UniProtKB/TrEMBL annotation, chain A:
Pfam families (UniProt xref): adh_short
Cellular component, GO annotation: membrane
Family to which the UniProt record says this protein belongs: Belongs to the short-chain dehydrogenases/reductases (SDR) family.
Protein name: SDR family oxidoreductase
InterPro entries given in the database record: NAD(P)-bd_dom_sf, SDR_fam
This protein's record includes keyword Ribonucleoprotein: no
From TrEMBL, chain B:
Annotated ranges, domain FAD-binding PCMH-type: 1-177
GO MF: FAD binding; oxidoreductase activity, acting on the CH-OH group of donors, oxygen as acceptor
Protein name: FAD-binding oxidoreductase
Source superkingdom: Bacteria
PANTHER family, per database record: D-ARABINONO-1,4-LACTONE OXIDASE, L-GULONOLACTONE OXIDASE
InterPro entries named among the record's database cross-references: FAD-bd_PCMH, FAD-bd_PCMH-like_sf, FAD-bd_PCMH_sub2, FAD_lactone_oxidase-like, Oxid_FAD_bind_N
Protein source organism: Chitinophaga fulva
Length: 243, 443
């Protein structure tokens, strides 16, 4: 049975992804900062799908633990899904370096640190799939969330470079741009229904796209064109917009 | 998030601020920090019991925590729905101890409504099968309760409509089955007298209920089809069914994609439907072996069937009268058939004894039927309430969206005791729904 590793397994999206892969008889490794909080999910996956699920402590910003974390996993995963992230508060982050730094490290530095380890291992064995959950916010910086957006922009660029590097080794790297997703992270926001995906839709799309070796996945197709248009707006006009 | 919410009857519909959490710790701090909200499952109660200006959706709190396949004990978080549970337990040879007529309800909802099924006269309501459960009470602490510990909390939570706290974890016993099939018997009854006699004759069957045609008068008054059943044994299956006795063939689902205009349901169409339904059983008695789904959940096969009643929604009216109050049942049925407002087939069932604090079931006849919301309906239902009160009966809170507070307080003998316990665990109306405000269930 193949194994999938979920980094940041506590998020709503990660729960849905874990269930989708478990339903296809993948064993699942759940990694997160609060390992004890992942135990109900571990039980749930084993009982529902009859697969083996394990729980592992993982802190995205404890960089020097990452190599050891990966080396001590009971099985080297065939697929690694990097699903952690932190939306944070843009206004607070503009004044408070603690918040800004937390956003940057959770979304970018931490991801680079752990995926470097995973990528090197996959390159050696010439197999593996890396899935990075990035964000449409990283496509162009906007005043309403450019600190989160810039971290995700960095992550998107990292994934694209990694894809380029690992192509020749037969390792596939997929970037996911979920758009709006109905999760705890966004439950205080009112989201447009047509552009908002349920975590289960994201999970299903990710699962299928992994099978098809898609490079960049937009979960709700309009996002692809919305972001294309947003990227095409000349900077002279863009800077005057209230986005 | 601001959300438009309604329960299955689509009446009332309100805008609610909804929150949802996946971790117990988050739920506890939410409870401690908020008030005037109500926990909510899959919205399959019919009325306003789980509606509030502020609601706590439990649908994401949906992990299965343990399943003892040898002893048949399941432990789940409150947001798991019965359809998910069936998918897991049936292939392992277990079934729900009690199930209502839809499998799209959560475990938390099953407890809060203390749901009953076709086996109530034999096996009681859901509360009779719970080993223990966790409830987050008003101060944000989590209390484990059971028939042996914190019994006041336990009995006020079973059927307590979420007013004692947020149900988070439930452990309950399952029922051993050999197959996923039901050996069913359908018997046509020409009128109410006959169906009541048949209920008595077939009372040793585990499952029983009757579809009743409320619009008939004269000799056919109360004509029905009694349906009784038992879990089928392997020996009772045909060759095809026997190949995989615990698996059901998958079937496509139908759906009602939008609200139908309400004029579609009128006395004529309802009469025609009932005539066809009654007439489709050509023989007096039919015996066959059917998958459990159409037996327990005939309407679940049509997703969003509630839209058939139109945008204004409908009220499902369910009452119970004790066995010696058959005249009350006749009086109510007569009022309905005279009015000509009856819905599609209504459900008649005989409950067995149940000793609980605030749950709906008591030994007697229970009738459930739908009425599309229209002018004059509430005044008519108030008249029916009077008859129910007169004959010592009561209404099911999970279906209720409109009864007057005095009807509740007069008809539930333990109402005062219940309200006292609620006050202990829910001071200052921390947990509050439209229904609890309407019926003054919280003080």
């Amino acid at each position: 049975m193949p194994t999938v590793l979920l980094l940041g397994a506590g998020s709503d999206m990660a729960v849905a992804i874990a269930r989708r892969f478990a339903a296809a008889q993948y064993n699942v490794q759940l990694a997160g900062r609060q390992a004890a909080a992942l135990q109900p999910l571990q039980q749930d996956l084993q009982i529902r799908y009859g697969i083996a699920a394990t729980v592992h402590h993982f802190d995205a910003t404890a960089y020097d633990t990452h190599a050891a974390f990966y080396a001590t996993l009971p099985v080297q995963p065939d697929i690694t899904v990097c699903a952690f992230g932190y939306l944070g508060d843009q206004e607070q982050a503009q004044h408070d370096w603690q918040e800004a730094s937390r956003i940057l490290h959770s979304n970018f530095t931490g991801a680079v640190s752990i995926l470097n380890v995973v990528a090197n291992a996959y390159e050696v064995k010439k197999a593996g799939v890396i899935v990075g959950i990035s964000s449409v916010a990283g496509e162009r910086g906007r005043q309403s969330n450019y600190i989160y957006g810039s971290a995700k922009a960095g992550f998107t660029a990292y994934l694209s470079g990694l894809r380029n590097r690992l192509f020749r080794s037969g390792v596939h790297v997929m970037s996911v741009q979920p758009g709006f997703v109905n999760t705890r992270m966004t439950q205080h926001l009112t989201l447009p229904p047509l552009l908002t995906a349920q975590p289960e839709q994201v999970a299903n799309a990710v699962f299928k796209a992994v099978q098809r070796k898609k490079n960049v996945l937009f979960v709700k197709w309009p996002w692809k064109y919305i972001m294309l248009i947003i990227k095409l707006i000349p900077e002279a006009i863009f800077k005057k917009l209230k986005l | 998030m601001q959300k438009r919410l309604a329960n299955w009857g689509n009446y009332p519909a309100i805008t609610s601020e909804e929150s949802a959490y996946t971790q117990e710790e988050q739920l506890r701090s939410f409870v401690a920090a908020n008030h005037g909200f109500i926990a909510r499952g899959n919205g399959r109660c019919y009325g306003d019991a789980s509606l509030g200006k502020h609601s706590l959706s439990m649908l994401k709190y949906d992990k299965i925590l343990s399943f003892d396949t040898a002893a048949g004990v399941l432990e789940t978080q409150a947001g798991v729905t019965l359809d998910q549970i069936l998918d897991i337990i049936v292939p392992k040879g277990w079934f729900l101890p009690v199930t209502p007529g839809t499998k799209f309800i959560t475990v938390g909802g099953a407890v809060a409504s203390d749901v009953h099924g076709k086996n109530h006269h034999m096996e009681g309501a859901f509360s009779g099968h719970i080993t223990e459960m966790d409830v987050i009470i008003g101060d944000g602490t989590m209390v484990t309760c059971s028939p042996d510990q914190h019994t006041d909390l336990y009995w006020a939570t079973c059927g307590g409509m979420g007013l004692t706290g947020v149900i988070t974890r439930v452990k309950f016993g399952l029922k051993k089955i050999e197959t996923a099939y039901i050996k069913q018997k359908q018997i046509k009854a020409r009128n109410l007298e006959e169906v009541i006699r048949l209920f008595d004759e077939y009372k040793h069957y585990t499952y029983s209920m009757a579809w009743i045609d409320c619009l008939q008068k004269g000799d056919s008054f109360g004509r029905s089809i009694l349906i009784v059943g038992e879990h089928a044994t392997k020996a009772e299956l045909n060759d095809k069914q026997g190949q995989a006795p615990l698996l059901l063939p998958s079937k496509p689902r139908l759906t009602v994609p939008f609200n139908l205009p309400s004029f579609i349901l009128n006395t004529f169409t309802v009469k025609a439907f009932n005539w066809l339904y009654y007439g489709k059983n050509f023989k007096k008695e039919i015996n066959n072996v059917v998958p459990y789904e159409p037996f327990f959940y005939p309407l679940d096969a049509i997703l969003h069937w509630n839209r058939g009643y139109g945008k204004a929604g409908f009220i499902q009216y369910q009452f119970v009268l004790s066995l010696d109050q058959k005249e009350g049942l006749i009086a109510i049925l007569r009022r309905i058939s005279e009015k000509g407002w009856g819905s599609f087939l209504a459900v008649l069932k005989v409950f067995g004894q149940q000793d609980s604090l605030i749950s709906f079931p008591m030994e007697g006849y229970t009738l459930a039927l739908d009425f599309p919301v229209r002018k004059g309906l509430f005044a008519f239902l108030d008249e029916l309430d009077e008859i129910v009160l007169q004959y010592g009966g009561r209404l099911y809170l999970s279906k209720d969206a409109r009864m007057k507070q005095e009807v509740f307080w007069k008809s539930y003998p333990n109402a005062e005791r219940f309200a006292e316990i609620v006050k202990t665990y829910n001071p200052g109306k921390r947990f509050e729904s439209l229904q609890s405000e309407r019926l003054l269930l919280t003080k």
